[in-house]
Design a protein that fits this description.
Layout (H helix, E strand, L loop, with lengths): L14 E5 L5 H10 L3 E6 L4 H13 L2 E4 L11 E4 L8 H9 L3 E3 H8 L10 E5 L4 H14 L6 E3 L5 H6 L7 E4 L2 H5 L8 E4 L7 H4 L2 H9 L8 E5 L3 H9 L7 E5 L8 E5 L2 E4 L11 E5 L8 H16 L4 H10 L8 E6 L2 E5 L6 H8 L5 E5 L9 H7 L3 E6 L4 H11 L5 E3 L7 H12 L5 E4 L12 H19 L1
Parallel strand pairs: 1-2, 1-4, 2-3, 4-5, 6-8, 6-9, 7-8, 9-10, 10-11, 11-12, 16-20, 17-18, 17-20, 18-19
Antiparallel strand pairs: 12-13, 13-14, 15-16
Length: 480
Amino acid sequence: MGSQEVSNVDWQGKRVTVAGLGVSGIPAARALHERGARVTVVNDGDDERSRAQAAELEALGITVRLGDGATLPESTELVVTAPGWKPDKPLFLAAAEAGVPVWGDVELAWRLRGQDGREPAPWLAVTGTNGKTTTVRMLASILEAAGLRTAAVGNIGVSLLDAVLGDETYDVLAVELSSYQLHWAPSLRAHSGAVLNLAPDHLDWHGSMAGYAADKGRIYEGNSVACVYNAQDGATEDLVREADVEEGCRAIGFTLGTPGPSQLGVVDGILVDRAFVTNRQKQAQELAEVVDVNPPAPHNIANALAAAALARAYGVPPTAVRDGLRAFRPDAHRIEHIADVDGVTYIDDSKATNTHAAEASLAAYDPIVWIAGGLAKGATFDELVTGAAERLRGVVLIGADRALIREALARHAPEVPVVDLDRTDTGAMSAAVGEAARLALPGDTVLLAPACASMDMFVNYNKRGEAFADAVRRLADESA
């Protein structure tokens, strides 16, 4: 199916099982019911919130089955699943045995686009282990600067179904896609797609690194204009080589170094384009300055180049790239500057929930007092510590799996002072900031880049970052 073709499914009377209540399940159930499908929602949970959600759907005439997400309802013709449901769940095994297709919410949105008679907006799609949300929001900012009607949607927390079926009309969509969403989106065909980077993550869900990479690589399938890859991460280029794309689709690399033909890169502090110019062998188009990127940390410059590549693939002029990057403001808890106290800079990168993200964050500062720890999710830390050792002034460890980081530090950075906070209560963050301030010297950066998930101590990484920021501000008040 070409990137602008519309899938015409006759939903009237079609028996559809929606797996999971929540952010994607409820909009999917509503949308299918409105189109005449006979919808049954199944859900593992049977708590108070689930019962309230079920009551709302049942009032519309939708069947809801709580406490049993394993059994495939009789006569099911299609399953639409929440992206987080693992492929080995009994429901999906039963569907496979019965020959019933399984779609995710992204697949459903893709199939429903344009069915109301409107011209469907093309999708510029982004995935990767880290940097997805920032890149998609940068891309939307660039598209807006070009005067295009757009929105940042998908895994960013804005339902693709709402974007596709809502009253708003868009010229183009900036779409963040997780590996889970891509796994369940077999017919997605983006205008252009990007894989920012690849590092081990969610391997319990995908079964292996090969499975994880293959699902990420689905973003390139059927691309019509550009497959954007990270020239400094060979695994992303391998995925482009393996993709089945439309004739004429180009491979476009981005690099923090000097770009070759068909690449975007950096020359003397300038972001330049050697891909979307008349003579790629001899010409380079200036797009923006490194200082236009907020913040200008190396991994964030890479995000900006990927966003610029997708925007340029859509035909956006160079001035819009510059103006869009200048207008962009990063989300909270992503290498966010909190304060300078007594000559020490305090940075909140609580969003660095895995080693790959923490590695990028640690590479942006020197010297560093590093606050790390939490739930390791099966990660190992030797490579991370080895790469950062020379930059470390000291380390403060918090959280349930801090011993794993402490042991890696003992092996690879034995001279670096380590404070091991033997507590997992939320007040530990205030103590951690106090210990970090004690270790830091003027000119240092105290960096919260935990390399771990937060759920051992906090509801989510946002709450962890807020606790850090609150502690830093108290420190600043005391110092004033």
